């Protein structure tokens, strides 16, 4: 019986949350094509035979431009301390950037085994993978192990378990057998609403959205959630509500269906859009939202 903690790190948008969801075969982390989607650390727990793997998805490591960004990068860098192994994810379709080099410097600074994972190989030829390996050696140096995967399509997932097994150092399981995440139901609900909004918005709006549950009425057959959607400017409020309220209705419908699936009961969502100027720079408000590490 072995178990261990594995940090998943990388710059924004390389596919960390996609990989995490695929590994645990449940959706615990929301995914979008906008960078900076994940804002907190999320644990995903997988039991494979005798072994328990505890994966920790982290926000993309980037140069912060506001307090929220600082929190996100801190969460990721803090996670590197005290894990048994690190999975450093790269987007194989992109040239290695200064952002990847920044992550590399941090993962190499802690004395922990690092498995480099090249993701999105569904878009690469064999030759391109070989070229990528050379580029990695030249720009990032050596790694304990290198794995190639396409998280979106579940390609190469078994290699992750095989290669990480030797790093599971504890001989007790940390979590009960039926637990697959530490994220609370209310947090998941907030994230589902945020994910639907990210899908329909662009430019600065995805980064300007925060979700807060302000009231809950929960009975065995039915749940009602009153939810505030915060944005930073009046113009953003108009965009999110949409013409005749259409965008907000669409988001509400999609989120409700997913939450009904999660809770296995009927759900009513009341969504309110509010403007909170510069909330990403306000310490107290970030704390209220739980972004205060
Ligand atoms: N083609 C391809 N796309 C992928 C793959 N894995 C992830 N993606 C896409 O890459 C985008 C980013 O994925 P996420 O999982 O949100 O990335 P992340 O690293 O968690 O992003 P942040 O939260 O910004 O740090 C999404 O549009 C995914 O659908 C893959 O294997 N192949």
TrEMBL record:
Membrane association type: Peripheral membrane protein
Gene3D superfamilies in the cross-refs: 3.30.300.20, P-loop containing nucleotide triphosphate hydrolases
Domain KH type-2 per the UniProt entry, residue ranges: 201-277
BP GO terms, sorted: ribosomal small subunit assembly
Renumbered residue ranges of the record's region G1: 10-17
Domain of life from the UniProt record: Bacteria
Stretches the record annotates as G5: 149-151
Keyword Plastid set for record: no
Renumbered residue ranges of the record's region G4: 119-122
Location of the protein in the cell: Cytoplasm; Cell inner membrane
Positions of the Era-type G domain: 2-177
Start and end residues of each stretch annotated as G3: 57-60
GO molecular function: GTP binding; GTPase activity; ribosomal small subunit binding; small ribosomal subunit rRNA binding
Entry-linked PANTHER family: GTPASE ERA, GTPASE ERA, MITOCHONDRIAL
Record function comment: An essential GTPase that binds both GDP and GTP, with rapid nucleotide exchange. Plays a role in 16S rRNA processing and 30S ribosomal subunit biogenesis and possibly also in cell cycle regulation and energy metabolism.
Quaternary structure and interacting proteins, as annotated: Monomer.
Protein name: GTPase Era
The species this protein was found in: Sebaldella termitidis (strain ATCC 33386 / NCTC 11300)
Gene that specifies this protein: era
């Amino acid at each position: 019986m072995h178990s261990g903690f594995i940090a998943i790190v990388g710059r924004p948008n390389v596919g960390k949350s996609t990989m995490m969801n695929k590994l645990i075969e449940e959706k615990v982390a929301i995914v979008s094509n906008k960078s900076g989607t994940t804002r907190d650390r999320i644990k995903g727990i997988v039991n494979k035979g005798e072994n328990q793997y505890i994966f920790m998805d982290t926000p993309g490591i980037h140069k912060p431009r506001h307090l929220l960004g600082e929190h996100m990068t801190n969460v990721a860098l803090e996670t590197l301390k005290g894990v048994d192994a690190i999975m450093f994810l790269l987007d194989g379709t992109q040239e290695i950037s200064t952002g990847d080099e920044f992550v590399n410097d941090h993962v190499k600074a802690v004395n922990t085994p690092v498995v480099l994972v090249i993701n999105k190989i569904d878009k690469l030829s064999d030759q391109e993978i070989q070229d990528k390996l050379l580029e990695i050696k030249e720009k990032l140096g050596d790694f304990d192990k290198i794995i190639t995967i396409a998280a979106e399509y579940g390609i190469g997932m078994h290699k992750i378990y095989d290669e990480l097994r030797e790093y599971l150092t504890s001989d007790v399981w940390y979590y009960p057998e039926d637990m697959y995440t530490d994220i609370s139901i209310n947090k998941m609900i907030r994230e589902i609403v945020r994910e639907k909004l990210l899908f329909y918005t662009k430019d600065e709006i995805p980064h300007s959205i925060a979700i807060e549950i302000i009231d809950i009425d929960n009975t065995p057959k039915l749940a009602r959630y009153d939810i505030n959607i915060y944005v930073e400017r009046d113009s953003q409020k108009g965009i999110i509500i949409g013409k005749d309220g259409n965008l907000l209705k669409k988001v509400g419908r999609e989120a409700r269906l997913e939450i009904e699936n999660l809770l296995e009961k009927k759900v009513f969502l009341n969504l309110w859009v509010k403007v909170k100027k510069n909330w990403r720079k306000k310490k107290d408000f970030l704390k209220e939202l739980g972004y205060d590490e």
